Amino acid sequence: MTNNSSTPFLRIEGIHKFYGTDHILRGINLSVERGEVVCILGRSGSGKSTLLRTVNALEPVTAGRVVLGGTLIGYLEKDDGLYALAADELARQRARIGMVFQHFNLFPHMTVLENITMAPQLVLNEKRQDAEEQAMKLLAKVGLTDKAYAYPASLSGGQQQRVAIARALAMRPDLLLFDEPTSALDPELVGEVLGVMRQLASEGMTMLIVTHELRFVRDVAHTVVFMHDGQIAEKGPTLKVMTEPETPAAQAFFSTCR
Amino acid sequence: MDTNKMRELAVVIPHTYWGRRVTACLLILLAAGVGYSVATNHRFEWNVVGQYLFHPDILSGMVVTIELTVLAMLIGIVGAVILALMRLSGNPVLVIASSAYTWLFRGTPQLVQIIFWGFLGALYPRIFLGIPGTDIVFFDAPTNAVIGAYVAALLGLGLNEAAYTSEIVRAGIQSVNSGQIEAAHSLGLTPSRALRKIVLPQAMRVVVPPLGNEVIGMLKTTSLVSIIAGRDLLTNTQAIYNNTYQVIPLLIVASIWYLAMTSVLSLVQIRLERKFAKGSRRSERSFFSLFSADAPLRRLQHHAILNGLAEKPVCYAAGAEK
Q: What is the distance in angstroms between the Cα of B192 and the nearest Cα belonging to chain A?
């Protein structure tokens, strides 16, 4: 299952996570290649979102490591163990990893354009004009050019989520994380968000997606990871995992979710 | 609009609240009566009010009041943000220190605090800063030279204000959804940048209304300093009537100026609330729009009554959402 030619782009090794005495993640190992689209499936409570959030260290881990492009994320490795990174160094690492949230989390006191241009100006030191030019291109890509000066509260859920994707893309991330991006949307708005994600996949963006949209997974994912009880129960090529699951948990999941 | 068209459209007739209308009329009558009696009662000595309204001592007292308010609020707000951040830091010592400060300053009368700062020199005759156990002294001076009456007044007002305002700031910061902070972090903002760019601007929406209360309260609390320093508006007013015995008209003079100042502050507060309400769905209706909010419907109602369509008014709550 491991790539034999070179070290993978994203490597998740032996992640454990405790909430109090609850063992939420029980030793997760996962490799993602550059340009690969990996979908994480599983029932609620199986640890999917927690795993995703450890990748940009929003969720501190109890043990294990995340390595992106050769850089250890969130920690500093010394001889006697791992140390939490300084705030500015951690921020610099997170700037390379885009994240799209279930509840969009747009900044309500800023216009759509300000939402997208804020971080590039502040973190990447882009000039305002350049950042805005780039933002308008991204808005065109997600089909929202006419909403540049609107505030998030006046947009539909689907529009807000497309802005959130544009905001993440504006940082030119190496990797995009999606945490149930369509779960908070009305059914008729799901398609517009998935459409943007399909396009990103076709452009070769590396994506790690937690979702329940199995049709989308079937069409877009290169690899499917099925999680059960804080562990990866099954992983492999999309069609194989979805049509011929081996473990009972995955078999039950795919037969009821069809 | 003709009658048939109105039938077709099934125009909704706004409900007329007769109780409210009658109460409003009574209030207008009452206000007119009180206004007339106050204006014509010669015992208010309005001529004395006019005489002292622009008296130099009154005006200079006002300057001191404004100065004390601005400086004390500045100390209060800076202190409040620090206290609130300590309280939310998660470090047990910082949390306890912040809570203890709030406990102490909210729990003792402000007058006592002001007197305490005013008479600090009696407790500690000298203030010095140095390293204990060595002869190194950076700073050494008699207390009364460092903390004069004016500084004592400022400390008394500002440090007390910090305790109250810290609770307002804390509530504001906690009102911001944690998802906002996560989004800011995921974009590569450091915690301090996320606080300044994302959290505090949103917290301001919650903070401004009670903070406006605090500023207006402070404007009047400054008169407490008369006990150690004075020269503020109320103290100067009292100094005048202690000589002339024209107590009521001079208190009216002071009240007119206090009202004028609080009115200006209220306008500033409204502007600030508008500024920080940017992008929020629920914006408050302005005072004047209350008079015209349902005017179009009222016009239709008038038409409907004229045309005999309004026998059964349909209940309509003005301003109800959708």
A: 9
Let me know: does A182 contact A211? Beta carbons within 8 Å.
yes
Q: Determine the Cα–Cα distance for residues B15 and B29; give it in Å rounded to an integer.
A: 25
Chain B interface, best mutation among A52, A107, A138, by max B CB count within 10 A: A107
Say if residue A125's pLDDT is above 50: yes
A147 contacts A166 by C-beta, under 8 angstroms: no
pLDDT, one tens digit per residue, over B54-72 is: 999 999 999 999 999 999 9
Measure the CA–CA gap between B71 and B157, rounded to whole angstroms: 9
Residues of B with CB under 8 A from a CB of A: 177, 179-180, 182-193, 197-198, 201-202, 205, 276, 278-281
Contact yes or no for A106 and B179 at CB 8 A: no
B157-185 pLDDT, tens digit per residue, is 999 999 999 999 999 999 999 999 999 99
The DSSP code for B198 is I
The residue type of B244 is: T
Contacts 24+ apart (CB under 8 A), A247-254: A250/A226, A253/A41, A253/A42, A253/A43, A253/A226, A253/A228, A254/A214
Q: How far is A72 from chain B (nearest CA, A)?
A: 16
Tens digit of each residue's pLDDT (9 = 90 or more) over B17-40: 889 999 999 999 999 999 999 999
Q: Which of B89, B175, B187 to substitute to test the interface with A, most A CBs within 10 Å?
A: B187
A46-63 burial, b at 16+ Cβ within 10 Å, e below that, comes to bbbbbbbbbbbbbbebee
Strand ranges (E), chain A:
10-19, 22-32, 37-42, 63-68, 71-72, 75-78, 81-84, 97-100, 175-179, 207-210, 223-228, 231-237
Chain A residues touching B193 at Cβ < 8 A:
91, 122
Cα separation values, A107 from A132, B25, B82, Å:
17, 46, 24
With beta carbons less than 8 A apart as the criterion, state whether B184 and B191 touch.
Answer: no
Count of alpha carbons within 13 Å of B188, Cβ hemisphere only?
A: 25
**Is residue A34 within 8 angstroms of chain B, CB to CB?**
no
Alpha carbon A166 to chain centroid, angstroms: 14
pTM for the whole structure: 0.80
pLDDT at position A126: 95
The distance of A245 to chain B (nearest Cα, Å) reads 34
